[in-house]
Amino acid sequence: MQRTLATALPLHTLLSPQNPKNFKQFFSLSLLHLTKPPSNPRTLNRLRHLSVSITEPPQTSPKSISNVDHIDPRYLSCSMPEKKLKVAVLLSGGVDSSVALRLLHHAGHSCTAYYLKIWFQDDFENFWSECPWDEDLKYAKAVCDQVGVPLEVVHLTNEYWNNVVSYLIEEYRCGRTPNPDVLCNTRIKFGAFMDAISNLKFDYVASGHYARLLHSSSSDKNDGLSVLELSKDMVKDQTYFLSHLSQGQLKQLLFPLGCLSKDEVRCLASKMDLPNKERKDSQGICFLGKIKFSEFVARHIGEKEGILLEAESGDFLGKHRGFWFYTIGQRQGLRLPGGPWYVVEKDVQNNVIFVSRNYFSFDKRRRRFRVGSLKWLRESPPDQVGQLQCKVRHGPGFYDCSLRMESIKDGQEDSAIVRLFEDDQGLAAGQFTAFYMGKTCLGSGVILDSWDDEGGFPVCTRALEIARMEDKSLLGKPVKIMTLPESTSKNTEQTKRGELFNESVNNMVNAI
């Protein structure tokens, strides 16, 4: 059987916003299975114009894999083995999505794998000495060839750029710290991609996310509610990144790994003899490949020299490249001696970063903040808003919290005040807060710039006055930083909590 596969595409032309018809035509051509080449001359001309080649992939026999003839039924419990389904599987080339594909295949479903390829515009070519996705695609193809599953490549450059990357850039320009992974799931993987394949009549779209989905038992999957729950592996759990999906999106999804731990996934990968069984998990932001996040920000926002001031004293400590390179709670990239130093506040208007060595001291922790852009997976706020749990970042940690919905004024979106029952200092505007009741994820909102009356980290009057100086060259040279005594700089409990949060922040900004 022949099938179409987009292999050589002039994306700067094909995916241009000025050519929306080309983009639609591309999807209809790249995702359509044909039993024979099209005979219509206009279709053939269209194919030539778009540089899409119709090729017949090499015929490969499924590899004999007797060592996985039997898989513990518990591992298949999130793959709907009792039904025979037509499933579109998102395949990245990593271990998690590969095991998810194999579990669905073993459960007897008819699977088609899709690799989402995101290319930048021409001015990004000199960022890479080689294409960072070649290796991913090679592994994805090898995994599919093992069991004879067809693999399609889908290009979503325009959608990704317009809905994720440009939003990311604008948020950093405004001094906020957005989460691209949440947006990618909502707008690309389970947004633009599902729209592109909607005419192919798949029963579900599956991925290698660590989350559990409970669908209605009704014969019509559109009846009843689908419930997003925590995965078996609380450390790897990814419900935080899925918390901004809609109920309509949840109804169409399968997460085969929701019933497994990461260790079990690795064991299965070895048992299945997957080509990528030894491959490490990917880190950083998905569209950047091997590019440092700081390089990406510098290319799109540029650099603008600013000053670093100690929040408590107003002392001039050094200079930085622009406030958009830093997020609240960040430690790496400050290049200051005598630390650890943390970013505690930002003056966006004057391009000033306030830092402190006392970020995790008891009297400066936060318990209250506002969230907006609320989205509830049950399409309405929970009834018991006084007894919830929340995550303010990806990871196994939860806070008990209460939620107070604010009155909606004309033209304004929903917002709420969140009160944590414990202290946290890593609250960065632009990040998401996901809400839970027990194991069930209820939805999420975006942490807003406007804090409650308790305010943020206390910055002294002298520091605020210096930040407003028009001619900062009058400050002269930075002060000599004194090293803190050992007993002062190492409070065991505070340092431990600080390092846990700092690791999360530094992973997020990809080691600036």
TrEMBL record:
GO terms for MF: ATP binding; tRNA binding; tRNA-5-taurinomethyluridine 2-sulfurtransferase
Gene Ontology terms describing biological process: tRNA processing
Start and end residues of each tRNA-specific 2-thiouridylase MnmA-like central domain: 295-357
Keywords: ATP-binding, Disulfide bond, Nucleotide-binding, RNA-binding, Transferase, tRNA processing, tRNA-binding
Catalytic reaction(s) noted: 5-taurinomethyluridine(34) in tRNA + S-sulfanyl-L-cysteinyl-[protein] + AH2 + ATP = 5-taurinomethyl-2-thiouridine(34) in tRNA + L-cysteinyl-[protein] + A + AMP + diphosphate + H(+)
EC class (word): transferase
UniProt domain tRNA-specific 2-thiouridylase MnmA-like C-terminal: residue ranges: 367-447
Signal peptide: none
EC number(s) given by UniProt: 2.8.1.14
One of the Pfam families matching this protein, by short name: tRNA_Me_trans_C
InterPro entries: MnmA-like (IPR004506), MnmA-like_C (IPR046885), MnmA-like_central (IPR046884), MnmA-like_central_sf (IPR023382), Rossmann-like_a/b/a_fold (IPR014729), tRNA_2-thiouridylase_MnmA (IPR051305)
Superkingdom of the organism of origin: Eukaryota
Family according to the record: Belongs to the MnmA/TRMU family.
Role according to the record: Catalyzes the 2-thiolation of uridine at the wobble position (U34) of mitochondrial tRNA(Lys), tRNA(Glu) and tRNA(Gln). Required for the formation of 5-taurinomethyl-2-thiouridine (tm5s2U) of mitochondrial tRNA(Lys), tRNA(Glu), and tRNA(Gln) at the wobble position. ATP is required to activate the C2 atom of the wobble base.
Name the UniProt record assigns to this protein: tRNA-5-taurinomethyluridine 2-sulfurtransferase
